[in-house]
Fold this protein.
Amino acid sequence: MKKNLILTAAIFAAAISSGQAQTSDAEADAIVNLLGVQKKEAMSRLVEVSSKDSAAFWKIYDEYQQVNKATGKERINLYEKTALAYKNMTPEVADSLSDKYFTNRFEQEKTLEAYYKKIKAATNAVVAFQFYQAEVFMLTQIRASIMEQVPTYGEFQHARHKH
């Protein structure tokens, strides 16, 4: 599980750090869909659902993945905008990017909370908690992997001034 998520994140990070043209909607959809498949596979190993609750859980989880696609695509767009802004960073650009990251994360957390409640109502609090923990774990792993692959602005500036 961990290797699949990290591999996807690494491929994604390499693509955006290369400074190529922006990712098309189709490419962003493909990245989000691939990640969704890998996350579902991981979720199946991280969440123990009884046979009586299985259908309800997976129906709601699939809905969660669908709803979360827009947030994922926006995150991809933000990573690209960030990488492209490195050469011309201004206080205004930095502030705008930060605001967009805060909004994106807030929307993701709101969606996660809403689906925790749906899963809890359809199954029970233990299954919902497992979903919450697994999702936070995966999101953290993905973000950490991307951050390891893409230099921070400070690292970029330091390397730029060395040359």
